[in-house]
UniProtKB/TrEMBL annotation:
Tree of life domain: Bacteria
Descriptive protein name: Uncharacterized protein
Length: 72
């Protein structure tokens, strides 16, 4: 596993605990990641957390389970 992959995994762990943080892109290290949270449709208690670099367009998606009373 390369260093960039390891950084994405570390970011996923951080984001799952605190989704509203400012994180530098692990791919280019020159810009910050934009974070978009999208709830799943229906009764699934999950959200997708989309991460997108504003400079190099690197992207990743994290799916997280949430309680039905606290979607986000």
């Amino acid at each position: 596993m390369n260093d960039v992959s390891i950084k994405w995994i570390e970011i996923a762990s951080l984001i799952s605990k605190t989704p509203y943080v400012k994180i530098k892109c692990p791919s280019c290290d020159n810009a910050f990641l934009n974070i978009f949270i999208t709830p799943w449709q229906g009764d699934e208690p999950k959200v997708d957390i989309h991460l997108l670099c504003e400079k190099c367009n690197a992207k990743n998606v994290i799916t997280k389970e949430v309680s039905k009373s606290n979607k986000a």
